[in-house]
Amino acid sequence: MTAATLFAPALMASAREAVALCGGLAVVALLLSLTWKRGLEPVTVVLAGMVVSLVAMAVSATLILANGEYMMSLLIWGSGSLGQQGWDHAQAIGLALLLSIAAALLLIRPLEILGLDDANARSLGANLLLLRLLGLTVAVWLATTVTAEVGIIGFIGLAAPTFARSCGARSRKSILLAAPLIGAAVLWLTDGIVQLAAGGLAETVPTGAATALLGGPLLLYLLPRLQLAHRSSISDLSQPARRIAFPGLPLIAIALLALGVIVLALIVGRGPGGWSVATGALLEDLLPFRAPRTIAAAAAGAMLAAAGMILQRMTGNPLASPEVLGVSAGAGAGLAVVLFSLAAPTMSARMIGATLGSLIVMAALLAITGRKGDNPVRLLLGGIAAGALCNALVNAAMVTGDARAFQLLAWISGSTNQVGWTEASAALAMAVVLLGAFPFIVRWLDILPLGGDQARAVGMPLRTSRLILVLLSGGLTAGASLVVGPLSFVGLVAPHMARLLGFARAHHQLPAAILIGAGLMAGADWFCRIVAFPYQLPLGLFASLIGGPYIIWLLRSNR
After folding, report:
1. pTM (two decimals)
2. Closest listed residue to residue 360, CA positions, set 477, 535, 523
3. Which helix (H) or strand (E) segment is 298 a member of?
4. Domain count of the fold of the chain
5. What CATH number does the domain containing 519 carry?
6. Using one digit for the tens of pLDDT, what is the confidence trace for 262-290?
7. H helix intervals, 531-556
8. b (16+ CB within 10 A) / e for 403-432
9. Which of 101, 126, 494, 558 is the most interior residue, by most CB within 10 Å?
10. Which of 225, 256, 284 is the endpoint of a domain?
């Protein structure tokens, strides 16, 4: 719908619901292709959906930022605004609701059968593929109709059935009848509270952002109560298929490659006359513009890679990263608090706010998900909830439309256009200080994936080590997020690439990941300068368009 609004507005005027339905069906087809081999396993579906959603958000935000005249209106609409000028949208949603409820009632018995395992369902003569496709079609039609008319309304689909079951509904039919009524009441109440709290700004404050303030805590509340299968030895999945016997030379090669990327970003570029290699006086003239952003990008990539490796090793989860666990979003929430609390926040104040936001999210996740043991699945779901909650806070602050909101929007996109020597020096100093602590703690990263009992058996101070690692990962995430925003996936991709290259031990994988992260981010910054010249794409979003497909490939290859 964002692409159609910008490039085919006539189509949006005549077939908005069809455009939204095509986008929704395309996502469902992609999710089915990613998760079908694993029998639509719920956790895999959730992870794939989260990644596809983040990539779609990055594409939409890039399109919005490239067309500034539409930026704020699309931003408010995308956050779920219920402000209307007539009955047309309500009538369209009502018609879709009535037809879909009728279709869903016809599917009640098949839905009951789908609640069984596949073997029992087939023994009853059910065509599982057909039933799933029919159910998905109805669900996608409902979701895309709402999105087409009022924007994205999050978490009502999670909250309403949960409340229905909590109120005593047990059968599929009773849940199906109660959930729409409860969803209507929850959204109506949320919208009323938003209007009451916003006062004169009620027309611009999106209700969809407020629903995430409800849904995020709800999912965090449910996590300790969910019966999730414990994945034994999930950390074994992060072991490399092959190991490098002598890692010294490969590390030197990676370092030279990363340095080559940085040099390439400094001297090669596009100008009004086409491609050029800057040397001599021209290079001296261009360095004040190119060098700060390249240095800041490389430092941010190195910090994100180190933070991602800490989280993966500490949680025993190969999919953990600052972006996936909502730690980067927590940095954004802390930054928003600082921007809207202080009249003229300094760089140090922003750093403190972002760090505190990251630490609060990480501490909350470890506290909530740790009650049921070290279940990596629970941690991932908690990260989704925490990220949604923090992003809702940032969105609610952003739609006010003042100068601070535009600062937040620039942060979300991860734009490095305005980075100067002050910001680059601060990012480089943070990277040097925080990464300098790793030689003293790298042994912990080798021991923690073995489990708490083994760590205690070798005399490791478990509580102290985890606290120090949480503080370090929070500082690294905050420092990097201030430069490149909350979404880049480098914190996930770089440790994976180091592992796939054969670096097994932490004291080998860590420098490899740091160098890969620095090279990836510096290269992404160079690409976002040249790929749409004379326009410059935001670094964070551009990097996420590289990292997101990599994660999708991992899921698709069943790894």
Report:
1. 0.78
2. 477
3. helix 280-315
4. 2
5. 1.10.3470.10
6. 999 899 888 777 788 888 888 888 888 88
7. 539-556
8. ebbebbbbbbbbbbeebeeebbebbbebbe
9. 494
10. 225
